[in-house]
């Protein structure tokens, strides 16, 4: 994670066909997303695995690291770059022990205490939010920009702001001086994900500039 | 799996409290179950992991191997003896590659073709069913005793009959000469799982005697 990766796409299949879903991810990669997290909560393990293989074919083509939400086994099965763990997923410490030092482990944290625990257990980066209300996550508890700022100041690893962020409102997180921004809808819900990604990435670079 | 392990308990929390659920598993271990599979389809990863830790404390006490349904990551996290994979879970071949040769991998197969695939991919045993209708599995497609027999005759690994089997009807699988019987309700749904297990194990030994 030494390379700066400011724009982080978290997927949502919405009601897209499989082909349309994959096409949006490809367009986002072409448009410049720096990280992709495949996030599935309802698929069977077999379907999650097969979808992850398809997505990884795309992300590999663009040399974009692929992270798998929640499931270490799926991440291992497709040789993903890493996993992203929420508070209801396996503990970061357990994941680190199973995956070793070289696999990326990200953690969703909503409070300073959660952030500090994730760092002490070996997380490589944090996702902090939801900054704004979001329709794509089951978990919609909000985190203030003040908390985001406090977390960013307290931890030595990259911090991504997440939750309802888009090109119009992303300026809101500028005071926190985060390392990047993670989005779902701003890319997945547009009919032109390529242009949306290009525009959003420029805004995110402005916002994260130190 | 060289040691004969004829009675295989697959768990179901039903509407039990956590304590009552664990108490039934403990009573089943005391009564003589030879294998336990923790099977959860709705818990978060964190809850599945924590429950698996609790169950493993019990099964370890009785030296009963614990298998985890579906989730390789949970199995790895609690150092379970192995995993059990259905047709909607990760392929056996992928699991074998990730887990190595020493971890037990079981597979649910409903047809001879599925059974032969599972064997060729490295399964250690097969669960075949449902022999009788069952209320505890989402999957209720039935498999005949004829298919069970054909599978048993075709594969070189232990075969367990599963699906609605209990002390009263388990004789039905005797013609198949299976290696063991797996049950859910016959143990989990009784108020005296210790006695139920003792009685059932004797019946299963009779039925599986060569």
UniProtKB/TrEMBL annotation, chains A, B:
The keyword Ion transport does not apply. Condenses 4-methyl-5-(beta-hydroxyethyl)thiazole monophosphate (THZ-P) and 2-methyl-4-amino-5-hydroxymethyl pyrimidine pyrophosphate (HMP-PP) to form thiamine monophosphate (TMP). Pathway: Cofactor biosynthesis; thiamine diphosphate biosynthesis; thiamine phosphate from 4-amino-2-methyl-5-diphosphomethylpyrimidine and 4-methyl-5-(2-phosphoethyl)-thiazole: step 1/1. NCBIfam families: thiE (TIGR00693). This is Thiamine-phosphate synthase. GO terms for biological process: thiamine biosynthetic process; thiamine diphosphate biosynthetic process. InterPro entries: Aldolase_TIM, ThiamineP_synth_sf, ThiamineP_synth_TenI, TMP_synthase. Gene3D superfamilies: Aldolase class I. It comes from Secundilactobacillus similis DSM 23365 = JCM 2765. GO terms for cellular component: cytoplasm. 4-amino-2-methyl-5-(diphosphooxymethyl)pyrimidine binds at residues 37-41, 69, 108, 137. Pfam families: TMP-TENI.
